[in-house]
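Worked Example 4.2. Consider the chain below.
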Amino acid sequence: MSESATPRARLFDRGSWPEAQRVTQILRKETVGGVLLLVGAVVALVWANTPWSGAYEALREVRVGPAALHLDLSLATWAADGLLAIFFFVAGLEVKREFVAGDLRDPRRAAVPVAAAVGGVVVPALIYIAINLGDPAALSGWAIPTATDIAFALAVLAVIGHHLPSALRTFLLTLAVVDDLIAIVIIAVFYTRELLVGPLLLALLPLAVFAVLVQRRVRSWWLLLPLAATTWALVHASGIHATVAGVLLGFAVPVIRKHGEGPGLAEHFEHRFRPISAAVVVPVFAFFAAGVTVGGLGGLADSLLDPVALGIVLALVLGKIVGITGATYLVSRFTRAELHGDLAWTDVIGLAALGGIGFTVSLLIGDLAFGAGSESDEHAKIAILVGSLLAGLVATIILRIRNRVHRRICAEESVDSDHDGIPDVHQHEGETRG
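Applying the procedure from the previous section yields the following structure tokens:
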């Protein structure tokens, strides 16, 4: 067969129809969560810059929990360490599902989002390090601009329009899943101040019992919830950030049934907990984490001139675009793949700009790097807000340029000539692949 007759590999192929439906459902829930996240962040930011800011700080510092177990924590700490464990539990479920039954199980389909996510971590980190190279204390914040907040990004997409083609939506979600996995590793490895082996080993016991029960499809909350809470408390006591417990619990849940057909328990838990994570956990965390005193335009300018803040803004806006787009381009060059259909590199740049919206995990890493309430942490929060807004603005401009093409692609993807509930493009491409 001649070289011209050999079909070239294509980037951003449409996945199967069930996968497209699943992605659409997830993104719909995350979009609602993103709007609520923005509401929580705006309320906190406005309140922290009013004459009643003292009440906001007092609310953040209210302590609740059993002192005997060293869990008399402030509400802000409970939001970061406790509630976010649910967020990371859902992230763990999603990561495992992608590697077991999703796009990431196929190395060829996984290559692009994995490379893009790695590029979107490495380049922003290098930009931040280059700007703060002379300050060892500031260098501890190198991981702040590496995170992508899928909920915030989807809230921006909801404003831009609902016409992003399914392949690009899948790419954005898969990239965010890999980004979450990298963030989990970074938090566990680089932001563990002191490791106590005893509590960590003890945490393996309730985690193992939890794993055995869910492998047997046990759903009883009165059994699973105490085991999960005990695992969380012991991981918290070990010195590792307690949200890692959520990830470990998520990894323990089976994606596919061992006996019989149908999905495993992971899908059931994801349906239950993703709405809680999107609509409650992330907005509450944003409310307690985003309240920073700006001090007017002068104070804002002074904060952004801090190398910590400058590094974060440039890394989020420029680093993500260069890292994600550059890595995707390199994959296309090495594999000799071309973009699918009417998609263009402008679309990749627009999605890369969306990847610069780092909020939830960025705020968490800022607290871990500099200590909540420190001057560097306050400047980091301002930079995360400004950088995320700028990244969202850049993405809006780029993707709006392509809006007409996206509308046409979405219209083609919705045609169902035989009225069987499956769009024609998915049937035709499935036949071609077969």
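Strands lie at 10-11, 63-64, 73-74, 338-339. Residues 1-6, 430-434 have pLDDT under 50 and may be disordered. Compare this with Example 4.1 before moving on.
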